Amino acid sequence: MQKIGIDLGGTKIEGVLLDANGNEVNRNRVPTQQEDGYRAIVNRISDLIVELKGSSEASVGICTPGAIDPKTSRMKNSNTVCLIDQPLKEDIEDKIGQNISMENDANCFALAEAKIGAGKGHSVVFGVILGTGIGGGIVINGNIHHGRTHIAGEWGHHTLFPNGKKCYCGQTGCAEAYISGPALESRYTELTGEEKIVTDIAKDPPQKWKEEFMDHFGIALSNVINILDPDLIVLGGGVSNCGFLYSDGVESVHKYVFSPIADTPIVQHTLGDSAGVYGAAWLGESI
Ligand SMILES: [Zn+2]
After folding, report:
1. Which residue in 26, 149, 233, 275 could disulfide with 271, CB within 3.0 to 4.6 Å?
2. How far is the CA of 97 from the centre of ligand 1 (A)?
3. Distance between alpha carbon 36 and the CA centroid of its chain, in Å?
4. Which CATH class is domain 2-107+274-286?
5. Which own/partner pairs from 17-22 qualify as long-range (CB within 8 Å, at least 24 positions apart)?
6. For the domain with range 120-269, which CATH number is right: 3.40.190.10, 3.10.20.30, 3.30.420.40, 3.20.20.140?
7. What is the 168 CA–ligand 1 centroid distance (Å)?
8. Do domains 2-107+274-286 and 120-269 have the same CATH topology?
9. What is the pLDDT of residue 42?
């Protein structure tokens, strides 16, 4: 069956139609225009699905920018604020007359990279988004592993330092408070008094900044490896463009892993911004 994947972002809604073999047949995007409100977004997504589908049958998956309550399928937090607490899945299903799948962006990223990206051919893939926030998704034999309460893979809020920096989630010392893009940028400002975006800092990083970053990255991902022992870790998000993550970063992770043969591959994504739509499209297989 053909598959439709929709990536719902804060500024644009992107959609693809894949054929039964996963090849891209059609693609389109429309602006989200969240100022028009929730109903308008439901209509735009539904219209895009109908347009991509044409007269053929296709499964539909949607990648959303926030966590989804597993009991109600309503979005719990999202930077597209008008979506919060709305029954987005049900409303789109009503509008287009078929069942759909919905997952957060980290799970879609992990699924896409595991199916057709950097993790293709590997059984257990841990997908990491290192950006404004930190997310993660676990894919086992081509399926997203959700866990009992749908938090599997959410490594951004595991504790690196019990008495460490305050995190917006209410805890202290979370990984996100140290190695997310904004955390790395504010640490750079603390050390130098200057403001730069993380990819610019990484071009010529101050030694102390880089050492801390590598140490925190090493501890954070080694914790994941010690528990999950994935076949491969794939990195996405803006911070994943820091080249030294794949040399010094990998070395630091392996230093902290509890194994004499620490050699888990840690690689950059290959699908770029398309991971959201492709992951969403592959979700359809699980309906
Ligand atoms: Zn936190």
Report:
1. 275
2. 39
3. 26
4. alpha beta
5. 17/52, 17/53, 17/58, 18/278, 18/281, 22/115, 22/116, 22/281, 22/282
6. 3.30.420.40
7. 6
8. yes
9. 96
% of the chain surpassing 70 pLDDT:
99
* pLDDT on residue 31: 94
**What's the CA-to-centroid distance between 237 and ligand 1, angstroms?**
18
Cα–Cα separations (whole angstroms), residue 245 to 59, 111, 182, 218, 240:
37, 22, 17, 10, 7
Q: State the distance from the centre of ligand 1 to the C-alpha of 178, rounded, in angstroms.
A: 10
| Domain ranges for the chain | 2-107+274-286, 120-269
Q: Please report the beta strands in the chain, taking only residues with DSSP state E, as ranges in sequence order.
A: 2-8, 12-18, 24-31, 58-64, 66-68, 75-78, 101-104, 124-130, 134-140, 143-144, 232-236, 266-268
The low-confidence residues of the chain, meaning pLDDT below 50, are: 287
Rounded Cα distance, 52 and 47, in Å: 9
Tokens of 35: 């100022």
